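User: I'm putting together notes for a lab meeting next week and I want to include a structural view of one of the chains we've been expressing. I don't have a solved structure, so I'd like a prediction I can at least talk through. The sequence is below, exactly as it appears in our construct file.
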Amino acid sequence: MDPVTGTTPSVAKSEQQWREQLAPEEYAVLREGATERPYSGEYVHEKSEGVYECRACGAELFRSSTKFDSHCGWPSFWDPADSDAVLLREDRSHGMVRVEVLCASCHSHLGHVFEGEGYPTPTDQRYCINSVALRLVDSETGSAT
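Assistant: Thanks for the context. Below is the predicted structure for the 145-residue chain, given as structure tokens.
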């Protein structure tokens, strides 16, 4: 159980199982809370229509219809696909206070959410998500891109 969110992941694996399933960079981000280098991720400039799933467990997280160009170096979304798709918890690492975004199904680290930055979106939120934490499933073909 996560002591901050008070929830237990529905997809639970040992760290060894996660290491076997995920590539080293995926494991570092999803399971250890690392951040990929800005502008290095495969989905930063992606415009295809579809659903962004958690790369660790396959849960639906975001839809392309809420993705926007924030020019911050990571894919940005103004809202998750479902209010229960993600968990939010305080992150006081690196000498700052932020809000960490986790997959609600497996509690993998996805990125952070920021508010009040003045983006012209319906929520004024920016879910700044690591590409390596996501897998885009094309809405027409149903296959991962």
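A couple of points you could mention at the meeting. The first strand starts at residue 50 and ends at 54. The mean pLDDT is 91.

User: Perfect, that's what I needed.
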